[in-house]
Amino acid sequence: MIAAAETEMITAGETVIIAAVKNDKNTQQEIFMKKILFPQVKGMIHGGDYNPDQWLDRPDILAEDIRLMKEAGVNSATLGVFAWSAYEPVEGEFHFDWLVQIMDELYKNGIYTILATPTGARPAWLDKAYPEAMRVSKAGVRNMHGLRHNHCITSPKFQEKAGILIRRLAQRVKDHPGLILWHINNELGGECYCPLCQEKFRGYLKEKFNNDIQKLNAEWWTAFWSHTFNDFDQIDAPMAQGEGSIMGLNLSWKEFTTWNMAQYITFEREILKEITPDVPVTTNFMHLYPGLDYHRLAKELDVVCWDSYPVYHNDYEPMSAVAGLNSFDHAIIRNLKRDQPFMLMESTPSLVNWHPFNKLRRPGVHRLSSVQAIACGSDTVQYFQWRKGRGSFEQYHGAVIDHLGRSDTRVFRDVADVGTVLKKLEPVTGSRIEAKAAVLFDWSNRWAIDNLPGLSKDKKKYEMTCCAQYESLLRLGVETDVVAVDEDLSRYALVVAPMLYLLKPGMADRLKAYVEAGGKLVMTYLSGYVNENTLNFLGGFPGDGLKSLFGLFSEEIDTLYPSDRNHAVFGDGSVYEIVDYCEIIRVEDEAAEVVATYQDDFYRNTPVVTRKKNGAGEAWYVAARMDQKGMERIYAQCLEEAGVACSPQPEGVEYHVRTNGEERFGFWLNHTDEKKTVTVKAGKELIGATDVDGEICLEPYGVAVVQFS
Ligand code: GLA
Ligand code: ZN
User: What is the pLDDT of residue 34?
Assistant: First the structure.
């Protein structure tokens, strides 16, 4: 029970945490009940990227935009994402009046501003005057002016020019009541191989290896092919025509790129915080972006957000698979800051212009995908873009307002509908997901696996394997987080660690402690092969002391051709298909129980699934890429034994629960084009404003949100 008197408000920047202290005699435990990202805004955020800088000669259109935003139930606009030229058309000449006028107009009409720093693209004058601001490619060639995101974030000139502009911008808007969030740059990414970046990389390595080149040589195994370094100065980035054969170097470069990006974010953020200390800061992340470790970058931000563009209605997978991957993405982003909601910073109300086939969203799908974001823990639905430009690269990208310029369109009606739905979901604002299961997901592990010189070229599929485990757990109706390897695991009854090839220092001990304390751990083939520098463990995988946790070791790993199949046979005779990878494992510990064996090939009848009790918990090992039915069976058993209730839903229906400590909200999302009936406890369905108890029939692509009584 939460005593009202013990509830207090804590202000952290512009975010408000309503916290309560649970008064339990034994555990003085703090529970975060609600975290409202933007206290100024009532309820959920609905809005999107708005580029008035492209329409400054059309005041009629700008006035119409405000009228239409209100009609669509929009309460926020993301301004200035690529507006450097509009702010500073020539070096040192600044124009912010247009921006302030628009922010004023928006604010007068109840629309808040998310303001970007415009450093995602640079004006031509800057690149002509300071070529060092442009990136150098992996081939060592300096880019020319053009496109966007083409900057060297290390370049002092780029930072100097960006810094001047950001400072002036922040000073100009610092007291504006409409400003609720800073949005740094846009979709930060890419790599630069210029001399400045390489020098910084060498500095990073010196720090990492304590200035000890022999330590680096040992960890990178450079005696191989005579690649030993005498000095840090001899090390180059892994250039296209240079060194690419040292796995430790390749991984360090990836990690450096993130480290350097974190420094860049800090550079922009510190200017903003100095001038507007109370305005939170974010930057928009991308779909499973391979280039940056978002767990690391999120530490530099107040709020996390991402841009979601699922390939709906494709001809190679069902909608539920598209939605499953999107849900997995949401879960990754949500867990970058698990104590607060995240933001869906961009999505399209209709289509994009960069999928291989740019298909329209079918009726109902815009509401479905928007409510999916909320169900997964977002407190915003935002678009790219509010209004379509007349020319250039994104002139055919979907927008709320088309070239038609009217509001009586299907897309506008869909957007206005979402505006209405979000108002009805206001009580959900600030609540969060409490998951009982977690899938571990790690960028360094991902990079090490992608760069692993062996197995098969195209079938490593680390991200998709993690996604498949997440989807299996969702199918069982169990809320699942996707978390970093350094996350506190003790809150989960079940932790799944798929393909945890690389073990960071201390990871093995943390997994052991988790199991000892009562956790259920499921680990798979290709786990515990290398340390944080990709140096193999000796004496059997999984290494670093994990063999004893499972009571086994992996002796060999077999890579199957795409048409090859093996099978896992369980004790009750049930059989599950195996593709891609089979480890041949040796169980040498009597405490380890063989749960299933291989059916085929020369290793038939040898173990493929095992379990071993350790302390109060249990460690499962799945030595092959087994089909999802087989994995689901294991998860269901683990969860049942852990006393976690599963709530499986009809095929194609995704289910989530958000809670704020006192109230609970159930979400059902029908990702099929058929009607589906789901079972619900008594409550109020918020979108239809009807009392429900027992069953709800979901329309094709339909959704229901029930506030339980
Ligand atoms: C990204 C960018 C936007 C826009 C969209 C198009 O998300 O952030 O500026 O280019 O893609 O889908
Ligand atoms: Zn550079």
Answer: 86
